[in-house]
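Question (not urgent): is this output format expected?
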Amino acid sequence: MIPLHYRVAIAPIALAMLATDARAQDTATRLAPVVVEVGRGAHRSILELPFAVAVQTPDSLRPGQRHLSLDETLWLIPGLSVSNRNNPSQDPRISIRGFGARSAFGVRGIRVLRDGIPLTLPDGQTPVDYLDLESVGRVEVMRGSASSLYGNAGGGVVDIRTSDPPPVLVSAAARMWNGSFGARRLVAKTAGATDGFGYQANVARTESDGYRDYSRQRMTNGFGRFSYDDGGSSYALQWLGVNTPVAQNPGAITRAQFEADPRTADPLSITKRARKAVKQSQFGLTARRSGARGEIEASAYVGTRALDNPLTFAIVDVDRAMSGGHLRATLPLSLLGADQRLTFGSELQLQNDWRRNFTNCNNAPQPLVPVPTLSCPNVGSERGTVTLNQRELVSSVGSYIRDELDVGDRYTLTASARADAVRFQVKDKLINATNPDDSGKRLLDAVSAMVGILARLSESHSAYANISTAFETPTATELGNQPSGAGGINRDLKPQRSTTYEAGLKGIAKSGLQYNAALFSTGVHDELIPFDIPASGGRRYYRNAGRTSRRGIELGVGAPVGPLELGGAYTYANYRFVDFTVDTAHYAGNRIPGIPRQTLQASAALHGSFATLVTEGTLTDRMFVNDANSESAPGYAIFNARIVSSALWEGSGGEVTVGAQNVFNTRYIASVSVNAAGGKFYEPGSQRSLYIGISLLGATRRSR
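Got this back:
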């Protein structure tokens, strides 16, 4: 007998299958293909792109979202998973086709953009704690090595696009959320548009005591965008930033601790008062002009970040300045009677970090070390002696070209290549008799290419195949954390390189059913593998595996059935080590840890005259937690539900949302820390939580 909570979680998928046949009897009009910007060319339909790409409109498909975390926004995208670590000091772990699943912090292996401007740093790391989700209109996701046109990443691209401002002179909205575990969120928004000008701005204050012990958070974040569009040219200036004075770090725990109490925090994290405080601000400017002769686009951005990050092994202090620019042109051509679209561009990114590490002198239950020691000479200060003081400079230069050739009315051939050079430089400022100068430089470069073919099977259905390569460098932190304890740059750690073979189908049926399916095989050389050393206090180090293999199937479906909107995403991931030996241990044939073999997501939104009922389900397989595959986190099924109603304020724009996460109060492990020392692999997911939200909206008359 299948347990009740599994049956409920799977129910939306079953409804989708039944509804597809029923809807086929109707006479619904065919939906227009979704137009996207991903792919570094002019605006194109997803049916015209020879690689796996998905588009989500989060609040439209699944209304009532709280905009708290990316696991809400990046839902129902096959091949992509978001692990909410229930740790406000650590970003959600995002992975595409397994790339990024082993990240210790931030997002790795994936390029993340906001309206085309990179949030990903030149070394490949993406902090997403400052990413505003209130103003998201849609998300465009490219999966696989075909994303190599964007540079230093092997898994794909997530481009988050801002919603269009409403066609009114002034609109204002206020939202208030309250929920379990002390969760509170207040949001204020304003937006409007007239005569081609548009503006949007919002600010949010989020507070939470957290599901787990020692996971308190206080955060204020905001977003602003001013734009102008006259039909042929468009310009936009945007800002996003965050101030998080408190974000505690409960850490990962052992299996025995999880079984005893999943809310418990790692005792060492509490003892050393692990947490972070961060301030970040980023400005971006984009300009685009299009016409019969093609399209040209330019962008530039600047930003700063200040991080105070006490960890179990040290206190890390980083002051960062980052900047970059991008120039791209797309030209339509005709050669020997065949239409072509030639795209070429270049981008530059700069990262300047002043990084200092201090001895962590916290020693709970006493607040601080009570007597002076050699490493903690100042009683009353949590910062002890300086153990690292260096300037880390990273620059990335990339140029690319892409050509699309139409062959007849049905086929399109695509070829692209990108050359990247990523330069790392360390300027050591801590030089004395016992600490030699660890300054140094290292250049990592590569050329990545893609060849693909797309066949239009009909007006609304297409098939494609491609071969692509990608490369991914270690981050500045990964190059700096050397197992030997030395400073400077690890010269033995190599970038990983991957080659992918992919084929797929996608389309929109007359019934309204939308689908996309992909079959792929990826081989990776020198894959970057994290590991811990037992005496390192939780510090992460990295090494290269010889070869790994990723073979998978991805399927996404969506269908409107009268007042019901259904969606589903299924991922099969057979990811294994092919050649990997550590000392005398041979891991060839083992599963790559941190990635479940199968994942199923489903949602159903039933729209009624009084309210909309939204249900969501996730079913996932177990995942191994270490390279030896000696332990694993069990699979789980999670079910969420909420009711969204505007009946009380009909016509006023007011709305009430009442919901529950993890309705059946399942105890589960949402994320794992791969190869952690001391068996601290497990990051528990939240058990049942309830919440209520109230939204109020006002607007002036419609603009002309």
